Amino acid sequence: MAQNQRPKTLLDSLGEEIIRILTPVSICMFLVVLLVSLLRSNSSASVTSIATIAYSETSSDSTWDKFLGALLNSLAFVAVVTVVTFILVLLFYLRCTKFLKIYMGFSSFVVLGFMGGEIALFLIEEFSIPIDCITFLVLLFNFAVVGVLAVFMTKMAILVTQGYLVLIGMFVAYWFTLLPEWTTWVLLVALALYDLAAVLLPVGPLRLLVELAMSRDEDIPALVYEARPVTHHDSGLGENTVQRRVWRERRNVRQDSEDNSNFNGNVVSDSNSTGGTAQSSHTRTRIAIVEEGQVSERNAELSAPLIDHRMNGQEGMSAESLMLEGMGLGSSGAIKLGLGDFIFYSVLVGRAAMYDFMTVYACYLAIVAGLGITLMLLALYQKALPALPVSIALGVLFYILARFLLEVFIVECSLNLVMF
């Protein structure tokens, strides 16, 4: 019976990939909407940040003045982000990896300790939770330190790392919802356009950063959520298929023969192929360690559904295509989504939650549809794609339609007893 089963198509495997990346995105958006709903009194006050450096919106300003001011704020913010990203590329090019990790760790500590602590104070005040300041500071410090260690310094359980990444995205997204309304919407559109240019243009900073990391076979020290969709298939002995989370340990091709002789633990080859036959030379260069638990079959095959590299004939491929292949994907086939995508998806639904929950549903469905479209394109083109443009464009469009058309239609129908 197993031999007569229809092989998995691209769309069959894509559904599982969408679920694995959609779940944390949905959790992050839900938590931001929940915070905005619970802390409405605090959400009414705007914050001063680099996103409002050029213009401070007031209720007495005209619509045109608000739009021009929001445009100036967005241009200034995108310019700062572009300069900082190019500086990160330069530091990564100069191999200042330790400095970048320390900087990212410090940034994560600030987000978890200060932003998270401020939100915790809002919740304590809102629900009148009895807690003394010493206990609060000790808990907050431990929470922030464990978060930094989980994300950057040590190999903790994958669920702990992913959970902290979602929390960091939630904290930053909530603070972005405190920006003035016009600045928020124009900033979302500007960042979607920036994401498009930074990833797809040959001189885009994100493209340069990823290409440089791939040429060195190194991980980018950044806040990136990795779904790790590696599946473990049995080798025909009738056992059920088991899924394993995998930590990759990269090896240099020149040093691989020496390292493999000293390698201990449960080791399985990752061929990134469905055949698993004529690829012994490729499997020696890619090693994966099972994070927790035992694998029953050592000769089992690890495959990533979204990646089906044809290693035969790879020598004939151009250098550029080899460089682009796998961009935006983990080396084991895992989909990687930048935490900035989490943040601005959540900012969109959080801003929609300040108006009405009907717009939240519309924006959420639009973001999910855009993310699905992006993942389908990722599966087809097998290279890094910007995750913001499609989802943000659909989200903004659905917000406008839901707020100015759908709500009016539903209210009129309800008043005339046409629908309830």
Structure description:
- This protein has 420 residues and is mainly alpha-helical.
- The protein is built from 14 helices and 8 strands.
- The chain has helices spanning 10-38, 40-43, 63-93, 97-127, 133-153, 158-176, 181-200, 205-216, 256-261, 280-283, 319-324, 339-353, 357-381, 388-415, and strands spanning 224-226, 231-233, 242-243, 246-250, 267-269, 286-290, 301-303, 336-338.
- It has a 3-stranded antiparallel β-sheet, with no helix packed on it. Strands 4-6-5 form a 3-stranded antiparallel β-sheet, with no helix packed on it. A two-stranded antiparallel sheet has the order 1-8.
What value does the Rg take, in angstroms? 24 Å
Overall morphology: globular
Mean pLDDT: 75
Helix content estimate: 55-70%
How do the strands of the widest beta sheet line up side by side? 3-2-7
The protein's oligomeric status is single chain
Number of helices in the DSSP assignment: 14
- E-strand count: 8
The main sheet comes to: 3 strands, antiparallel
N-end to C-end Cα span: 52 Å
